[in-house]
Specification:
Blueprint: E1 14-20, E2 29-34, E3 41-47, E4 56-58, E5 64-69, E6 75-80, E7 87-88, E8 93-94, E9 100-106, E10 109-114, E11 119-124, E12 137-140, E13 156-161, E14 168-172, E15 177-184, E16 187-195, E17 202-207, E18 213-218, E19 223-230, E20 235-243, E21 254-260, E22 266-272, E23 276-283, E24 288-296, E25 302-308, E26 311-316, E27 321-327, E28 334-341, E29 345-350
Antiparallel strand pairs: 1-2, 1-29, 2-3, 4-5, 5-6, 6-7, 6-8, 9-10, 10-11, 11-12, 13-14, 14-15, 15-16, 17-18, 18-19, 19-20, 21-22, 22-23, 23-24, 25-26, 26-27, 27-28
């Protein structure tokens, strides 16, 4: 992995952060510079003190970066990212759950989705944004799905706040459910569980910018479920399904990431095995999705997507690269622009910028 050494100590350039699997040869947490015109990424530095930092979340101020440690022991860690390279703020904190795959910031806490055991953990943040020494609460789930190999038990894959900030949404691949939770004095508490198609393996969810609709991409079926979201009552209502691939796939097809454009006109998904990006157009104020085309993802096994500044970034895990695409403002189709080597790349997080898309 090439590393640039010019100007790594500061400046006003926007930065990106890339997670990777150290157990598969990844460099850990990677810091990169972002070219605001071309969207290009240039690797600046990395830190490998936390094993398998597969998913990242940036603090609102941009000075701290939080990461899971996707290991059987399960932990979360915080890095200060204002210098030349990521610097740990303290030792990783146990999440009391195996294989955390996702995390988000909610009401002064970091919440993790623990895939291995199907739980959600809350770890408080101190006033300076660093992690408290111990978790404040764990919500454990039960259940299973019809796929005996992949759904033998609960597998929480994502956790995030809803647009109102009142609720926490937990997507569980193992039980074919999306759970709506509350954070009560630092403890995640179940509000209600919503069943989706049996055997579909819901993986990730994203909200429409108007806050009234949500889109769930499924790992075990190449579909997106459109849902109505009522923040007043914390109610998620499935409305229908939209395929992400044109026809039945030939070979492996495991959808992974999903993002919606800032203007709410397009949804993009990635499918591993097929190694494609799919474009879905949005209509009906957010209630209707329609397939609009697919393009190659620029690598192999696209694990996660990020859209910002008119570009789409794809972490291609098995080919070990992050590719970026310019987004056509009329059609939403991604056009390949470039790629940077990052072995075992698993996610990309960009510093905030006014979206031009």
């Amino acid at each position: 992995m090439a590393v640039a050494d010019a100007g790594v100590g500061g400046g006003s350039r926007r930065r990106a952060f890339i997670g990777s699997f150290t157990s598969a040869g990844g460099p850990g947490v990677v810091m990169a510079a972002v070219d605001g015109t071309s969207g290009a990424l240039t690797v600046l530095s990395s830190a490998d003190d936390v094993p398998d930092p597969s998913y990242l979340a940036l603090a609102p101020g941009g000075d701290l970066l939080y990461t899971v440690s996707e290991t059987p022991e399960g932990a979360v860690a915080a890095y200060r990212v204002t210098g030349a390279r990521p610097e740990l703020t303290g030792p990783p904190v146990s999440v009391h759950g195996a294989g955390p795959t996702h995390l988000s910031l909610v009401a002064g806490h970091v919440l993790t989705a623990n895939y291995g055991c199907g739980s959600v953990t809350a770890v408080p943040l101190r006033a300076d944004g660093t992690l408290a020494d111990t978790a404040s609460g764990v919500l454990r789930h039960t259940g299973s799905g019809p796929d005996e190999q992949r759904q033998e038990g609960p597998h929480a894959h994502q956790v995030q706040p809803d647009p109102s900030g009142r609720w926490v949404v937990d997507v569980d691949l193992g039980t074919d459910q999306v759970r709506v939770c509350e954070l009560d004095a630092g403890v995640p508490v179940l509000h209600r569980a919503i069943a989706l198609r049996p055997g579909s393996g819901p993986r990730h969810l994203t909200f429409h910018p108007n806050g009234s609709y949500a889109y769930v991409v499924h790992e075990l079926a190449p579909i997106v479920t459109v849902c109505r979201w009522d923040a007043g009552g914390g109610e998620l209502t499935p409305l229908g399904e939209t395929p992400v691939l044109p026809g039945a796939p030939d070979g492996e097809a495991y959808p992974s990431g999903i993002v919606v454009s800032p203007d709410g006109r397009f949804v993009w998904t990635a499918t591993r095995g097929q190694d494609t990006l799919s474009v879905l157009t949005v209509d009906g104020g957010g209630e209707e999705l329609a397939p609009a085309g697919t393009v190659p993802c620029g690598g192999h096994w696209p694990r996660a997507l990020t859209a910002s500044g008119g570009f789409l970034y794809v972490a291609n895990e098995r080919s070990g690269n992050v590719s970026w695409f310019a987004l056509d403002p009329e059609t939403g189709l991604p056009h390949p622009e470039g790629s940077v080597e990052v072995p075992a790349a698993s996610c990309v997080v960009l510093g905030r910028e006014a979206d031009r898309y």
